[in-house]
Design goal:
Elements lengths: L1 E15 L9 E5 L5 E6 L5 E7 L2 E6 H5 L8 E8 L5 E8 L4 E10 L13 E7 L3 E5 L15 E5 L12 E6 L3 E4 L8 E12 L2 E10 L4 E10 L4 E4 L7 E6 L6 E6 L3 E4 L1 H4 L7 E4 L7 E9 L2 E8 L4 E7 L2 E11 L6 E2 L3 E3 L10 E7 L5 E6 L6 E7 L6 E15 L17 E6 L3 E5 L2 E5 L4 E4 L5 E6 L9 E7 L12 E2 L4 E2 L2 H8 L5 H5 L16 H36 L28 H7 L4 E9 L2 E8 L2 E7 L2 H14 L4 H8 L5 H28 L4 H21 L19 H6 L6 H8 L2 H4 L1 E2 L8 H26 L2 H9 L5 H5 L4 H33 L3 E2 L3 H9 L7 H20 L13 H8 L5 H32 L16 H23 L11 H18 L1 H15 L4 H33 L4 H24 L7 H30 L1
Antiparallel strand pairs: 1-31, 2-3, 3-4, 4-5, 6-7, 7-8, 8-9, 10-11, 11-12, 12-13, 14-15, 15-16, 16-17, 18-19, 19-20, 20-21, 22-23, 23-24, 24-25, 26-28, 27-28, 28-29, 29-30, 31-36, 32-35, 32-37, 33-34, 33-36, 37-38, 37-39, 40-41, 41-42, 43-44
Amino acid sequence: MIIVKKDSEVMTNYVAANPVPAGESFGVFNDQSLQPAIFALSEDAILNLIVTADREPAKFDFGKLCGLFPGGVIIQAFAVLQAPDSSLDICIATKATDTTSNFYLLHHITLDEIIGTTPSAKVTRGVFPTVDHIYMRGVKGHKSSDGEQTFPLVMVAFQRSDRLTSTEDLSYVKFGKEATLVTSWSLPVNPKRIYDVTLVTCPLGDGVFVLYEGFEGRMFSVFKVLDGDDEFVVSVTCPEGATCLASFLDPATGWTVVLVGGNVITAFIYRDYSRKGSPGSTIDNLEKISDLKDIHLSQAGENLYLWYTTSEDAVYYYTTTTSSLSEGSVLPLLAKGLGGRTSSLLSSRPRDGDSDAIVSSLISVDEHGNLSLLQQDTTSLAWQQYPFWHADVENITEVKGLMVRLHTTVVNDGDGDGDAADLLPGCWLRVSSSGLVRCIINGHHTTLSPTAQWYQTDAKGVLNILLQNDDATIHQFAADAYRPAKASSTIATGERNLGDPILDPSRKLVPKIEGVQTADDVRNLKKPDGTPLFPGGISDRDAKGAAEALKQFVACAKDLQAKDTERLHKYHTAIGPRLGRAAVDEGIVAFGFWSDVEDFFEGVWNWITDVAKDAWSWVCQAVGDAWQFIVKIGEEIFEIVLTTVTSVVKGIVWVFKKIGVFIKDVIEFIGFLFEWGDILDATDSVAAGFNAALDYGEGLLNSKHIDAHQWLEGVRTSILKNLSDLQSNDYEGACTGGDTTDGDNDGNDDEVKAGVTYNWSSYYFTYGGGPTNAVLHDDSLSTNDSTDDKLVKLWDDIQEEVASITKTVANVAGDLVQFLNTSNYSVNELINKIKGDLVNGMIDSLKRLVDILFDALTAGISLVRDLANKIIDIPVITWLWKNVIAGGRSLTLLNFCALLIAIPTTVLYKARKKQAPPKLKGRLNKETFGKYVHGQGDATLAADIGRFSLAAGASVVLVWGTFKTISLLVDGSFEGSGLEAVPTGPVDETMNVLDSASLTFAGVSGFTTWPVLAVTSGVAATNIDTRAFLKYTGWALASVNLVSGAVVKIVGKKKKVERPLVKRWVATTEAIVSIPRLCVTLAGDIMDAEVGNKKTVLVVDGFLETATSFGSSWGSAVAGWNNDIENYLMYIGLAVQQSCTLLNYGLLVVDFEEELD
């Protein structure tokens, strides 16, 4: 059965201030070297200039460069235009006051003046109402024939371009000694919404062409003269489906031609837009495009290029000439989802060489502000894409608001519905919210509303929704339907209803104020960090009024929640027995919760919150069957009917603001607060464990001589001797796939592992710019040259062996991965899949590879330690580390990995033990660790290490699993699932970060899983020796992940290793090791059970952890065999890796909780 686990938290989130937002305009021009240069307004209001310096693009703060603005100035809008003589006109609006903007035109700026102080003689200034957008178009040139200046055409908007509703929102700018506004103008029919405007120059004067919608729903296209005969206005025929405008200068006449995009592209020349009712001329029927969103236009003399962006962010281009507009052709350039925002066309020098040739060039920006350069080969006319510039990690924006996590899972509890793990990666959920909200869903900016829409989950089946409001607004959410990314391998399936769709974040808020009954209760309210909500105290009148109002708001919220329960019962009746279990051939049932819910006076909330201090009477009360919030401000009385959770929370926030609480303190009170000091301590503890384990392991290797081939024969003998006993053991009935929880009534472990905060660090690496913008600095490695040369020779010698082994192992992949895909199997069934011939085959394969693995072991420890000290830069996380957590300390690879582990570890400790994890820094080193693993030393330290290792071990599995998944997706083959379009940076740079981090995680895993073998009373010495052999053998086989990765790093230092070879090597070693590791670990688990000093739940969990760890390794291996296995099996392998990893760290969370009892 498919279920969705849901969680939400109000908290402070951190978003990289995108330097080139994909949803906003950016200006592109050619620099002095005929390379593309970019102006872009970042999300933190900085005007960035990205221009080539020393042969590489670099970013500058143009506000500082030009010398016009004081430090910290807020840039509100800009526009840039390059003339035929290459000089620039730049318009900039900066914040002056809360209601005004300073406006600047930087006129005829030469290219050598761009990166220096702007001459004051070239600056025209003005003071306007607050400017939100600037429209600018060129005329014939910067200098007219008589030598007088000819300024560009400029309009300013006093609303965002998508919120223009009247001519008062737009003004034409006239230039003289100062910039002034032409403020009075009108349209023949009052607009309801202005879709687009473009500026026009013609014999009648300068003017504007406007595309807008009237209040009756009809579309209009109108030309209006603004600088000339201000009475001249013409309505032309508005083309059907019109959505956007563009314009260019006809070189033959010097007058503007306007293009209207809609169902077709229509051109209006001067003769058309100066005559009423002219229909214009169709130049492109858009036969290949049905969802045009925008037009970009580029002109080079008579040559014209139109760039079409569709609603699905695909890009097409149309090439023609100004004299024969309809004689052109449409070609596709970027597929769906890859267009984002594109620039106008440039004629630039090639990116991939020193040629002086001039080629067509285009800049495209993705969701993370990374720029790509597309250039057209002059011979083949094919377009080639190059990374141009990657965004940095410098600027971060805090967002205080709601974060929602929806995690799709499969629960098979014996119902036989056939649902399997491969239903999850990239599946789709139909999601709606009780109100319209701007949000970021899995890194993509979008909008949620009461109208349900389909959104694709990530490889884990998760939707992460970050709301962008910062005023503590809370909405309800519903995920009411599901569909898979690909057809299941086990059953025919399609869209289906989900049985428990609702997520109500107020259920976490209400308990925080439910205990408030008196004025003293109000005064004693505290934030999560223990500080008082009212440090300065409040009056008796305010405290009593707040107590009474909060009591009533709680009662109102409970009434609304009861009504939601009734609606849910009706919904369950409507969908009948399906409840997410079976495909629904007749279609899914509409959810419809929000259709009969409306907030009266919703628009009043912002106003009465702003003037809360002026209110002198307020009350929340029941009136009949409804609740009302009544506020008296001056002589006005506002009665707001409370019909939604949103209105109740707004009322609660209003009360707090009225009695003197700042909104940021309200958010902290009702939300979750990371205590970064405790997380820093946990980070240092993880790092201490990493270093202690490496030092201790290195000492053991240096002191002992190990014959690897003899050791493997001992492993073979042990497994074959015990295999029949392993296959006959009942494993205490251990079986995966069961679930005793349902909906929001999850058990403690589900509440933690599915929570927003436990998964916070994985989210922020994945969607905070990690796969796209992470950079590991100074990747030089100080390994021994003779060892390196030896490993390179071994690597070359075994490549045929590896290919042969991969083919052998891949032959059993189909059966094993299909078995694991069911998500509902017993440990006994799994071990009975392992036959003696398979064990022998895996040991033989491992012996063929053991020389290079063993030779790399000692060097690998030094390499991992070396890598751990390299500096890493990652958007959000680096900023957070330096500015919030660690007081300016540089972020090393070890600190980065330890931090990602420390966050869920601290969350788990505080959720279950109600205290921070123990501090191990200064207590844990090589000596104390050696005593710990032998059951000696200080008992308190041993207990602290043991519990910390359990909690951190679960976190390692969680975070490392995320990195493995991203590695698989970067260059995997998952066609048709939607997962193939995962955004990443340059593959080599991205994989360097992922591979290096995985080595570090392997080192931390060695610490958290190191066997501790204290002598147990009553156990024979021979059994202790056997148990120790099994435990250490299982642990050593697991450590092959570290050694395998070290081999690739060391060999890669000496020679270029192609990614397919790397993936094959890592996947194959993981697969062949997983089978003997499964056998010896289960044998050790059985001996643990026989000792009898463990709880039954821990014994069963141990069996399941071994099985799911095997499943995760095997799934990861299968998903990594790009060219050695069918693509559908790779997809199932990815699904198995995800589901087994989830089960594995969930079991470890349970272990931690049980150890606390």
